[in-house]
Input
Amino acid sequence: MNGHRDGNPEAAFGALGSELRLDILRILESAARESASRLTFSDLYDRLDIESTSQLSYHLGRLDGVFVQKSSDKYGLTQAGERVVRAVYAGTYTAHPSFETVSIDGTCPRCEHTELLATFEEPFLSVVCDECGETVATYDLPPAQAVGRTPKEVLRSCDRRVYHELGMAIDGTCPTCGGIMDASSRQRTSPRTDEYVITASCRRCFNQVMHPSNSVCSTTRPSSQHTGLTGVTRRTSVRGTSTRIRPIGRSRSCPWTHSKRASRQTCSTRSSS
Ligand SMILES: [Zn+2]
Ligand SMILES: [Zn+2]
Output
């Protein structure tokens, strides 16, 4: 019954396949957030639209150990349970962001045209060349990142996030799961041959981060401890973060592609260092 306690992913995901069990997680989260408290069995029973105590016992049993933890006769969320609730709140699996196509300054790495378009085709936000159609960068946009922001603000937000994640990756920490990442560099084959691409892979969740080395200059001074990238990173200039806030808008760079699910993160423009 509780195979998910032993790390069985199917059992763990199966435990979430019920609106009532998600309600239990939501109720536990709001109790923790609003009054820093854990709930007893009868607290939960009173707050749920449920027919019997045995039904509640059954559903708690499905969650117990992975998403819910019981101690001193009170229930609270585990870290995994909290992450599930946050993902639900963020709309990660249900919301559909929209994004109006906007024209932005930048330089196409293929034809050097200086008008780029930021477009959105779910789930990817893309920067494409208005002249030759080259995809300059893509990013899998989490719904919450599109809500309440103008397109330019979304672009800026994506830019900061990518640099933050890149900094972690080349320092050996997976930005998704915190696991150990191994990084390496290779020379690009096209369209530019004068660039190196840094690739980092997570040993645990297989997330991959890819980025041109000449953009590694803004939010991080990478250590070579995990990466073996000293030779590459030494070639880059280190600049203040403020200069990277608007690389998409006004500088020559457009730094990202990011796709955890598609397991790649690339950028195909050069920075103007
Ligand atoms: Zn072009
Ligand atoms: Zn990972």
Summary: Confidence is low (pLDDT under 50) at residues 214-273. The helical segments are 9-15, 19-35, 41-47, 53-63, 79-90, 143-146, 151-170, 230-233.
